[in-house]
Amino acid sequence: MALGLSEPQYELLNGKKKYVQPIIHSMVLIGLVVLVVFVVFLMFYVSWMTFEDSNDQNTPMDFVLFGPQKYTSSYVAAYRAHSFAIAAKSNYKTYWAAKDKINLNKRIEKTYHLACYYSIPIDNTTKSLHPAQINATLCTHLIVAFAQVQNNSVYFKSSFDMEILRQVVKLRDKNPKLKVLLSIVHFSNGSHSNEGFPGVVSNKDNLDTFVSNVVSVINDFYLDGIDIDWEFPSWPLLNLQEKYGFAKLLQTLRYRLPDSLLTAAVAAPLNIIDNSYEIYSLARFVDFINVMAYDYHSYQWYFPLTGPNSPLFSSRNDTGYFQDLNINSSIQYWISKGMPKEKILLGMPTYGHSFILINEANNGFNSPTSGPGIGKDGFITFSEMCEFKSHQNATTIFDHDTRTPYSYHKNDWISFDNENSLAYKAEFAASLGLGGAMVFSLNTDDYSGSSLCSSSVFPLTSRIKIVLNDDDL
């Protein structure tokens, strides 16, 4: 034929071309898919590593612009929750399981401390808890929170803060046995710094200056002692200068304050305990430690699942590291590391954490969430929880495994503590023979007695006291 296009060899060639082209297109498509998956994975990895390193590289902007700030309860809880969450994904995990699940029916009869943190109000409005509203016989110790550290000295934000401290001290007129302490707080933010406690322990001159100032503050305000709330030495940078500097700080304070109380607020996650504290120094120099056994679970973008704020025991669905995120594991670990039981106060929260559920039908523990829920940054007071639970037709579940309640309505989910769960915790402290309990804080309890859950003031703190002293479950 003239054109030859219909000859057999050309027909075969055209057929081959029609067969090869779809294969090439498929291979290109597969390649593009693989490339997109790789890019997404790379972006996730980079953002993850950026999160790991962000605290090392940045100074908090509020400090740069405004200097030391007054820490509210919600700010403190949010920061601690963030630090505890970092511990959950840290490479420095401690694999340890509590030897026993404590028998809550076997008490050790003794006298127990009840140390209560009281956060200085932001202003002088009627919406805040003021010293005159505090029952002077409710707690054995009142820890006023917080002063800060600036230029190797105790720093008060304002004269108002100092006046509040003086008013708390006057509560001893109503209860001469009441002990009043000032808590000094510092957040390391995971960065190398010469500010706050890291600066204090960086050399002997700074340490001596700070301790001398602490002695003056105790004398000037007629305090019974001081509480050191460093969150957290050496964490997460594993800076041994901070770890052993903290021990030296406690030793020096003890030497200069032989007749004053010295306490420390300490972490609950096992790997922070290992990396932040020289246990021998704590055991030797402090009167007691306040174990912050809360903020085990809160909303975090890299682990956006619901969980109990302060579980007494692990859930049956917990695996691996998460089996240790509970009070039983934390307290038994402190004891196993050499901390005397009588010097351990079990910290209990009067606040909870909230979440927004992605699927309202999936509403138990470990349910996917998209962010913090009601309250300030997911931080919810007992009164706010009562309003949520009572007015929104919410479903409330008491989880027997963890001995904690949670409540949900549509896409809102909250973990909190009530009188029942705190009674279990108080029984736990009594069953182990601990030194007692710590409450954080009076400000987030129902101090006005106006919530829909209770007709009395400070119902949560009162319940802890009753159970510790009277075994009245």
Low-confidence stretches: 1-13, 43-68
Supply the number of helical segments.
Answer: 13
Principal-axis shape: globular
Distance between the termini: 105 Å
**Any idea of the CATH class of the domain at 75-86 and 110-350 and 417-469?**
Alpha Beta
* Count of extended strands: 15
Spatial sequence of strands, sheet with the most strands? 1-2-4-5-6-7-8-15
Could you name the CATH homologous superfamily of the domain at 75-86 and 110-350 and 417-469?
Answer: Glycosidases
Percent of residues in helices: 25-40%
The SS-based structural class is: alpha/beta
**Mean pLDDT, rounded to whole units?**
86
Tell me the CATH topology of the domain at 75-86 and 110-350 and 417-469.
Answer: TIM Barrel
Radius of gyration: 27 Å
The main sheet comes to: 8 strands, parallel, barrel
Family: Belongs to the glycosyl hydrolase 18 family.
Keywords: Glycoprotein, Glycosidase, Hydrolase, Membrane, Signal, Transmembrane, Transmembrane helix
Pfam families: Glyco_hydro_18
InterPro entries: Chitinase_II/V-like_cat, Chitinase_insertion_sf, GH, Glyco_hydro18_cat, Glyco_hydro_18_chit_AS, Glycosyl_Hydrlase_18
